Amino acid sequence: xxxxxxxxxxxxxxxxxxxxxxxxxxxxxxxxxxxxxxxxxxxxxxxxxxxxxxxxxxxxxxxxxxxxxxxxxxxxxxxxxxxxxxxxxxxxxxxxxxxxxxxxxxxxxxxxxxxxxxxxxxxxxxxxxxxxxxxxxxxxxxxxxxxxxxxxxxxxxxxxxxxxxxxxxxxxxxxxxxxxxxxxxxxxxxxxxxxxxxxxxxxxxxxxxxxxxxxxxxxxxxxxxxxxxxxxxxxxxxxxxxxxxxxxxxxxxxxxxxxxxxxxxxxxxxxxxxx
Length: 275
What we know:
- With 275 residues, the protein is an all-alpha fold.
- It has helices at residues 2-31, 51-59, 62-93, 97-108, 118-127, 137-160, 163-171, 176-184, 189-205, 208-213, 222-225, 239-273.
């Protein structure tokens, strides 16, 4: 009986895995077809050519769009890591009403969709005379990343970094900033990697804020650059090229995640259990 239940469970898991992977496999198969080969997409890997990838690379100005995405993502993530780690440190260490209020205040940002308040945000930015450029979305990326990042950092500091380490440094005469940067921050590597991946993936793939604040094609990151592949009634979408562009955009993230996945899983689980 137990063996039968395990067999059924394995079959169901395998079926769910196939269902989830099938669209990805179809897209990958189509991306290796030539531009004119738009036959039945269920005929998997009936052709292998890089023609669609070459067309996607050229049409979307991949290197320029990649540079724009890197600037937006790296700048936003670095600022988020520095400021949320510094903010989470006193929140985790101080047992006061102010620290508890700030913790709840940051977490409240998780329940407010930024898309719902985009109109007053745009009006505020215009009222402050902040110019609309390729760097304007960084403000929104930082703001929207703070709640979840502070939650991870606070939980990790409380559960994984013993206060005795800091007390020893205090006895040796280390000041607050020195204790944080030289002792606490190096111990935050697992949760920092989690923040970098979770927020970096979202910022890298974001379309909404980039569409709102970026208007020049030369400043477009990868998600906006892919708009050029969307067709219309007179110019149908070349799905092979679009799928190739999707995989080109995802490739940098896959490479980064392959190197950081060990830290990511450890930091995410430890930092979210207690907090």
